[in-house]
Amino acid sequence: MDLSFYLPGHSVLHKMPTWVKFFLLISFSIAFYAIYDLRVLAFILALAITLVAYVKVPVRRLKAMFLLPLFMVLLFSLFSAFVNDLNAGLLTFFRLTSLVIIAACVTVTTKIEDFMEFVENLLLPLSFIPFIKPKTVSMTLSLTLRFIPEIFKLGMDIKEAQAARGLKSSPIAFIVPLIVLTLKRADDISDAIDARMLD
Amino acid sequence: MGQNPVLDFSGVDLVRNDQPVLHDINLTSSEHRIGVIGANGSGKSSFARLLNGLLQPTNGVAKILGHDVSLAQKEVRRRVGFVFQNPDNQIVYPVVSEDIELGLKGLKIPKDQRKEKVGEILSRFNLLHLRDRSVHMLSGGEKQMIALSSVLIMQPKMIVFDEPTTLLDLRNRNAVASTIMGLEQYVVLVTHDLELLADFDRVLVFEEGRIAVDDTPKAAISWYKKKMAL
Amino acid sequence: MATKDIVFIALFAAIIAALGLLPAIPVVGIPAPITAQTLGVMLAGAILGPKRGALAVLVFLVLVLAGLPLLAGGRGGIEHFIGNSGGFLVGWFFGAYVIGFILKNFISDTQVNIRAHFIIFIACFLGGICVVYLPGILWIARNTGSSFVDVYLGSLVFVPGDLLKAIVAMLVTVAVRRVYPIALK
């Protein structure tokens, strides 16, 4: 199971520190809403599309990543054009499409490890709050990543077992064992973490 | 090795979830390898968990390598590694190298040194090719060896194994068995796999929360086999 | 937070993710199959309680933000927070909290009688639908420059499917309570 959209490469975006990318993205998402000139927004969209070409996202990934968000953007732009006017619809379309494209470029150029480190560093100044321990946070994230493929496999096994018994698939008969079997492991896993003195 | 016995239990009782699990365990030992056998529910797993402070005695004193598990939990954990039955519950990070170096992070060892140590421990078991693998892609035997590596990298003085071969096929069971026999650390092995204990120094048989037999492997195992045949 | 709480949070975040990766579940009487992910969000609050449930959702969202394709249909990345679904994703966090809060305060951790069924359903309706839709609708209204009421009326289409999920969430929660009750936190 491939759990990442990351694309290896050497572009400026690949080399840029994660926090810079996120800072820029947030700045853009605020700035674009201050622009009401359609020509400027169209120019920005053109730049965003150039960015995709520059990062060299393969077409297959493009489809997987963009199709749904762009369809949603289109839907909401039409909605906006319908309830307000054409200008509002176009504003929505240009702003959101540019942002979705730029955000996707950040996604494909940022390694998951780098992002996790970024989250950890982001939380560092907050570590005086007893609840927020950067180490705990990154361990929780890793633990989740570790168990996603296992729970997925467990789900497939449950489906198979139920099919073997000739049972029709019912969401309740499927989800209940999935949750119970998974949560029952919590004791053993937390024992293992404690035994390794990770606190 | 020092004047302290490795295991020193006196009058240890343990109650878990209002159920008595261990009664009046008294034991002194400095042997290299100790085996622990007994029926399901006999208290042997709880005994293993006392050895690294995962559980603490309800009454009595349990000292491991001279440290009281109730008072010096951290000291005990640093010196005693624990390998569980199911490595899937023990490996907490998604990538092999990340998981092995996890304990070192806790000791604040710098990144390049951590990487080096991970390389050393993996090459010791000829597992260097697994370094950057996703854990969920490994076989059961590989997972158990990774779990053991993540314990060994902390350089414990003693390692407790709780049924480490139960879920393995014969080939992997043999690989894990020969690794255990090659460890210079003190070993306490809880198992149903009686053949593993042939070359051990001492074997304890647990029965209803007490140590029923404490003898050589040969004597203890034959007593246990007779008992189970009844 | 004890280690076990952290493990519960991580495991449930992984359950929410796995429910999105698994093929959608066909339901009798509804033409389109429902994706189980929002169901997972309701269950996080109902089974783990307010704090751990909301944190499980938060962990899941952080991983989506990191670019993991964990949203139903294999989607992920920051673009989904900026697009129109962003408000609903934020709403999931608060929704899980509200569901857990209601269960924790109105029924005991092991209660499975008719009253418990009713309270769990109400909690999933309020938390899983009302609380989730509020930021979702505000977000879209801001993004499209439309009025709140227009967007509100537009999103009513999705309510029947979500009501069904609240019923499934209720039945699953009761079944889990029967075999493996967990003290809500």
Topology summary:
The complex is a heterotrimer of chains A (199), B (230) and C (185).
Chain A: H1 12-15, H2 18-31, H3 38-55, H4 59-83, H5 86-109, H6 112-123, H7 134-164, H8 171-183, H9 186-195
Chain B: E1 7-16, E2 19-29, E3 33-38, H1 44-51, E4 59-64, E5 67-68, H2 73-79, E6 80-83, H3 87-90, H4 96-100, H5 102-106, H6 111-124, H7 140-152, E7 158-162, H8 170-181, E8 186-190, E9 202-207, E10 210-215, H9 217-229
Parallel strand pairs in B: 3-8, 3-9, 6-7, 7-8
Antiparallel strand pairs in B: 1-2, 1-4, 4-5, 9-10
Chain C: H1 3-21, H2 37-48, H3 50-65, H4 79-82, H5 86-106, H6 114-144, H7 148-155, H8 159-179
Helix pairs in contact in C: 1-2, 1-3, 2-3, 2-5, 2-6, 2-8, 3-5, 5-6, 6-7, 6-8
The tally of domains of chain C stands at: 1
Secondary-structure element order of chain B, as H and E? EEEHEEHEHHHHHEHEEEH
Number of strands of chain B: 10
The proportion of residues forming helix of chain B, as a percent range, comes to 25-40%
Q: Mean pLDDT of chain C, as a whole number?
A: 85
CATH architecture of chain C: Orthogonal Bundle
Q: What's the CATH H-level homologous superfamily of the domain at 7-89 and 157-229 in chain B?
A: P-loop containing nucleotide triphosphate hydrolases
Rg estimate of chain C, integer Å: 16 Å
CATH fold label of chain C: Arp2/3 complex 21 kDa subunit ARPC3
**What is the percentage of strand-forming residues of chain B?**
25-35%
Main β-sheet of chain B: number of strands, strand sense, barrel status? 6 strands, mixed
Helical fraction of chain C equals over 70%
What is the overall pLDDT average of chain B?
A: 91
- Pattern of helices and strands of chain C: HHHHHHHH
Unreliable spans of chain B: none
Oligomer class: heterotrimer
